[in-house]
Structure formats: C-alpha cells, structure tokens
Amino acid sequence: MRSARLKGHLDALVLAVLADQPAHGYAILTALKLRTGNSVDLEGGTLYPTLHRLEAAGLISSDWSASGGRRRRVYTIEDKGRRVLADERSLWQEFVQALQPLLGPPLDGGATR
Amino acid sequence: MARGTQAPGAQELPEAAWHALVAHLKVLRRGLRGPRRLRNALLHEVLADLVEATQTYLDCGHGPADAASRATRDFGDPEVAAYSFGEALRDTARNRRSRVIGSLAASQVLLWCAIFLGGSSEPWLERVEPEGADTSDLVATLGLSCVVVMAALCGAVALLRHGGRITVEVGRSERVLMAGNLTLVGCSAVALACSAGVRVLAAPGSLSVSSLVLTGCAVFVVLARWPWRRLPRMADPLD
C-alpha cells in the first residue's frame, strides 16, 4: 500500500509507531512495514516531510544524537501527539464500525438481493 | 566526491554503494529550496537513513550496487521527494522566522514602552495618584500601560500554551539576537523594579508600574525557558 492510499491516515500511523518508542526515519519506515505485515510500504520522500510537519505542529519533537559515528535525528512523540493519536484511534474505530456493514464480508455467505 | 569524514556512513559502505547513494542525494539536493542550514540537516538525515538501509540490504546478502539501488528505490524518486521536502523546508523556515520576529516584537514593545514611561519627566506614582494629577495624562498613562500589559500577558500565555513544547531551530545570528534581546528586557525589568522600589510596595496606586514590572519579568522568564534549540552546525554532507 503506497502513500496515496494512506492519505489522511499517515499522521496517525507515524504517531502510532512513535507512541511505542522514539525512532529515527528509517526505523519508522521499517516499523510501519513490519507491523502491517509489509502492507504499508511508505517512501522516505513521503515520510520526512510528514515528520517535519508533525514536529512543527508540536505533536512530536526531535533531537540529533550520535550513534556509531553517525548523526541521527531521533523523533519522540509529545503529550499533544498522544492526545491526537487517541482521538484518531477512536475516529478510526467509528469509521470502521460505520462502514463494516457495507464493505465488510457479507454475513449471509455472499447472497445479494 | 572524496569519501570524507563529514559524510555519515562514508567509511562504512563499499565504494560502489556509496557512489550510488551520493548520485541519488545529488539529485535530491539539486531540487531542494530553503535555508542552507535546514537543507544540510535534511541531507544528513536522509543520508544516514540511506546508509542504514543499504547496510541492511548488504547484510541480507545483496551486492553493493544492488543494495544501494534497493535503498534508494525505497526512498522514492528524489525529484518528487525534493518537491515535498521543499514545501516542508519552506514551512519550517517561515515558522521559525515568524516565531523569532514575534518574540522580538513582543519583548521590544514591552521594553520601549517601559523606557518611555519610566523615563518620562514625571514619576509614574505621581501620575496615577488621584490628587493633583492631570486627568488626561492619567488616562493616557493607564491606557498605554493597560495595552502594554495586556499585550505582554497575552503573548506570555500564548507562548506558554502553544509555544512551550515546540522547539525552534535557530541559527547563530538568531541566538545572538535573542540573547541580546533577553538581556535588554531583563535589565529593563530589573531597573524598573529597582526604580519603583519601595514606592511600589508603599503605594498600591502604582499598580501600572508594578504590573508592568511583573509582566516584564514574566515575559522574560517565558522567553528564557522556551526551548530554543540550537541546530547543530552541519556542512553539506556531499561537499
């Protein structure tokens, strides 16, 4: 699933990954891929602007750290980000519940009227 | 380019992989617009991640060129990415500039009003004393004081509510500007507090002076504790 199909959910996905632990860009990409069973395959070119936008909005913060002789920019979720993530999660639940009867698997085994 | 020590990961990758990453980043760099410091920081960030991605593919058994090619493919088209990055960089720069200018403006308004009022020929205490005070002077002084105090308080509250958790990356010149500004505001607040001194404590009528001093101190504290973050000095990793 590429970024175009994730439009509107990208912020929440990134926040969800960062809610577990601080991470740098590549680690976020990898976590997204792993945790969605390779379904979400985001490009770095899409991720970084999203991270910078979330940071500008105060939802996450970043710090430069040196590890293994390399400077890495590590992102951490802020309290405001956690609140936004909680809101996004409940909105997502509502969304799925609302559309499940229409788009979910038919309960009667596929018979249509 | 020479595989200098500036570039993150320059010494870790096989030459073929390194050259492929550099070629990719050069396309990205060509399309980037925005402040140089932010551009360099972004290039460092992307390069570090590309190096790690390439290293991961190498560890999985891919050849150097193939590993680099896979890593850059994961990153996406650099020309398209440059456009998105450009937007983000412009937003960051605009955001940073407006915060710095806003902070400077708010504290300077407070500072100059304090100097103007504090340096007037008549002491404030006499102006706000009911007896013998010129009504128009009193109204003007109180009005100006109220505007200054309200503006400063609103600014301080806004900074605390919305700015406190937002780090703003500032360069050296901006740090110098902010430090000078904070010193001026701090000194004027202390000077006003000293000059008002006992009179402020003795006469509740000098509310405008004491509130202005307190507000000045509050704004100073807020600006001083705002997490202005120093953006590390970073050279272009491809130079």
Account of the protein in words:
Chain A is an alpha+beta fold and 113 residues long. Helix content of chain A is 57%, strand content 16%. Chain A contains five helices and three strands. In chain A, helix 2 packs across helix 5 (79-103). Chain A starts with a helix and ends in a 10-residue tail after the last helix. Chain B is an all-alpha fold. Chain B has a two-stranded parallel ribbon. The N and C termini of chain B lie close together (7 Å). At the A-B interface, helix 3, helix 4, strand 2 and strand 3 of A face helix 2 and helix 4 of B.
Given as residue ranges, the uncertain stretches of chain A (5+ residues, pLDDT < 50) are: none
Main sheet attributes: strand count, strand direction, barrel closure of chain A = 3 strands, antiparallel
| Radius of gyration from the alpha-carbon trace of chain A, in angstroms | 17 Å
Q: Quick one: how many beta strands of chain B?
A: 2
- How is the quaternary structure best described? heterodimer
Instruction: Tell me the Rg of chain B in angstroms.
Output: 27 Å
Looking across the biggest beta sheet of chain B, what order are the strands in? 1-2
The run of helices and strands of chain A is HHEHHEEH
Strand fraction of chain B equals under 5%
Contiguous uncertain segments of 5+ residues of chain B: 121-129
